[in-house]
Amino acid sequence: xxxxxxxxxxxxxxxxxxxxxxxxxxxxxxxxxxxxxxxxxxxxxxxxxxxxxxxxxxxxxxxxxxxxxxxxxxxxxxxxxxxxxxxxxxxxxxxxxxxxxxxxxxxxxxxxxxxxxxxxxxxxxxxxxxxxxxxxxxxxxxxxxxxxxxxxxxxxxxxxxxxxxxxxxxxxxxxxxxxxxxxxxxxxxxxxxxxxxxxxxxxxxxxxxxxxxxxxxxxxxxxxxxxxxxxxxxxxxxxxxxxxxxxxxxxxxxxxxxxxxxxxxxxxxxxxxxxxxxxxxxxxxxxxxxxxxxxxxxxxxxxxxxxxxxxxxxxxxxxxxxxxxxxxxxxxxxxxxxxxxxxxxxxxxxxxxxxxxxxxxxxxxxxxxxxxxxxxxxxxxxxxxxxxxxxxxxxxxxxxxxxxxxxxxxxxxxxxxxxxxxxxxxxxxxxxxxxxxxxxxxxxxxxxxxxxxxxxxxxxxxxxxxxxxxxxxxxxxxxxxxxxxxxxxxxxxxxxxxxxxxxxxxxxxxxxxxxxxxxxxxxxxxxxxxxxxxxxxxxxxxxxxxxxxxxxxxxxxxxxxxxxxxxxxxxxxxxxxxxxxxxxxxxxxxxxxxxxxxxxxxxxxxxxxxxxxxxxxxxxxxxxxxxxxxxxxxxxxxxxxxxxxxxxxxxxxxxxxxxxxxxxxxxxxxxxxxxxxxxxxxxxxxxxxxxxxxxxxxxxxxxxxxxxxxxxxxxxxxxxxxxxxxxxxxxxxxxxxxxxxxxxxxxxxxxxxxxxxxxxxxxxxxxxxxxxxxx
Length: 775
Prior knowledge:
seven-stranded mixed sheet; about 10% strand; three-stranded antiparallel sheet; 28 helices; alpha+beta; about 35% helix
């Protein structure tokens, strides 16, 4: 059957419409009794039963699912009907409670029949099948997969005969969910189950107690393991250290002090008290979660999208189009030869679970993102996999490597050995391997995961040991100026001195540092001792040694065999960089107290550097100083005009929060902006509001800054555009150096120069920023 029409991009063309008609003619032969078929459009993705005419409208409007070459949901090459759950009238009339329950179950495990298709004609006619010289894939699910598939049949099994709202498994999951939310004891759940058995008809199929219910939940294979940890983050009581009673580094007890001891009443009979660990790491094993992706008929076909479904036209829409992905494939051909091998990204960030700004507690989840999936699925919450949960009064900081040990060991096993996995889309088992591509984190977490100190004179990890900063004597901080080194060699700015920092600059930017160089640089800290309470002599640097080695450790990721050869290991987060740049710009142009970068100390630093004499402070008397206005500071009327534009902004629901509430007309300032508010302000509103509020020589460069963020955040990138953008951002930063004082150029402003380089290596930024992670 001709399926070339599925590749036609113009869905209004005659060829595409004829192909849709051909498909519907074929699918209608196997329609349900009510005349409906499974809709294979990109919006429904085989999850909805529709009439033939409605399916035709969907296919023309949304297009057919990419990679759906074998129409298994419509009986192609199949000897029996594909079991698809048909939405009945009773299901459609379910209560809101039942809908919420199904949504919760959908995120826990697939809610569809996972019985695999038998080997069809396509595979039977393959000349390679049956050839003894070729290693054949194992047909059918293995024992573990059969157990899981059998369990999922309980999803469709009613709780009792005649029940249309709840299945046996949904009731168990719902009760287990309530137990966790409300703090029910195990005994209370047992009593409730016994009461329900008496209340419901005799045909009710519920476990008799909490123990049996927990075994059913555990069979899903998505549980977690508790690993005791030292309260000072020195070590895990794991593997060979699992039987220790105290930390081998700081000698701190493994157990919480209030749980250990003898009863105060010595005359009372002794009672053994169960010890409670002082700190616990929760580890969610990765292997079963990856295997579940291939056991879902909705997800499994998409796990090969990066090979079968993407458009290869030289543009970058997905990490698979990036140089980093292609370089990895060329170095590890055996891994890339199996398209079902999984590429992962690791995201880590800390938050306060109590919804306030208190620092009394910190929770650090470590999540993994499977990049095999297509763009419309890749960064969705349903496919994020929680790997580690680090709880404690403080963040792990540089000691996070201690908690990453279980995950790193599992990643090593997935790379070296792999794990046998059943692929429901091909009805075969294969040895799945996985590799970690990079990490996603904000700038402080960048230091924790990479080991590079993101503070001080050498805060920029991309510049490495190339000195980029300059110490401000009066401001008492580092300024990251000197972007002329990123310009073309023949650019006129190299010869200018008074307009910049008082000297000419013909230096060149440092090339990208290779993994082998980082290994050599981290040799002095390879034996670093982790923990919050270290020996005074341990890890103590000698005077002047900080300049020789700014590394705090050699990251645990370098224990992965392939980590050294990655082109990009840790991503700079565009979300937080944009937020910090917006705060710098808004605070300075509005002259906001505590936020502005142009203060008395900044003017004294200008005088110290001998540049921009028109901005020097003037003594008006014994105790009075006059600060001349700068070209980038708005007057009172200009502030009113700027803020009035923002105050009148109204955006559609879901596009952004109420940005107008952040504009304070009376105080002439902006406050209360979240990260996404700054994103909308910089890329959409700022170019409009700034016109007429500042001189043209200032506003045009700030508008150029807005355009830079809008282009770097595009969903589709090209190398030619990025090359041009790289030159533009270098010139723009130099132009801003001529306008704003050196104190304006924090390390976050400087990091703009490296965003285009990372985009050229790793592709679009929305696969590598913190927005989906923090949400």
